[in-house]
Amino acid sequence: MESTAFEINDIIEIALTKYSDMVRRICFLYLNNSTDVDDIFQEVFLKMLQRKTPFESDKHEKAWLIRVTINKCKDTLKSFWRKNIDSIEGIDIPFEDKSENELMQIVLSIPQKYKDVIYLHYYEGYTVPEMAKLLKKRENTIYSQLHRARLIIRQKLGGKEHEYAF
């Protein structure tokens, strides 16, 4: 059964509404550059548009988008251009709450393997077993990375607790 252009546009519009913020945040976690973020954002949703098979569920669709976004970001970071050119643009992630902005700046400053687990757990609500499957790592590795990430964040917060209870 073929989808009409109208149905495909509806599917993409719904996905953009539901997941655009998530895809942009993941891109910022990796790239710290709004031009690269925009490029990857477009590539991810273009890839979704080109996908021939339907998703099994909303959960499957979300996991697929996260995986594709992470992979596209990693590809960009490995590119010749990215390795040989320094970015002159700073990070600009607007938050209404100043403490949330401060926290995101701290999360952005930690090593990538910790950013992934913190973001997926606290911002997207994934459990450790779900993250292990999504990131293709052992559960114990995810538990260790989550524990270490919390310690680093707590230390950078000066030992004070945050509402996310790091």
From TrEMBL:
Ranges for domain RNA polymerase sigma-70 region: 17-81
UniProt KW keywords: Sigma factor, Transcription, Transcription regulation
Presence of keyword Acyltransferase: no
Lineage top rank: taxon: Bacteria
Gene Ontology molecular-function annotations: DNA binding; sigma factor activity
RNA polymerase sigma factor 70 region 4 type domain segment(s): 101-150
Pfam families linked: Sigma70_r2, Sigma70_r4_2
Entry annotated with the keyword Transcription: yes
Transmembrane stretches, start-end: none
A GO biological process held by the record: DNA-templated transcription initiation
InterPro entries named in the record: RNA_pol_sigma-70-like, RNA_pol_sigma-70_dom, RNA_pol_sigma70_r2, RNA_pol_sigma70_r4_t2, RNA_pol_sigma_r2, RNA_pol_sigma_r3/r4-like, WH-like_DNA-bd_sf
Family: Belongs to the sigma-70 factor family. ECF subfamily.
Protein name, as recorded: RNA polymerase sigma factor, sigma-70 family
Organism name: Clostridium cylindrosporum DSM 605
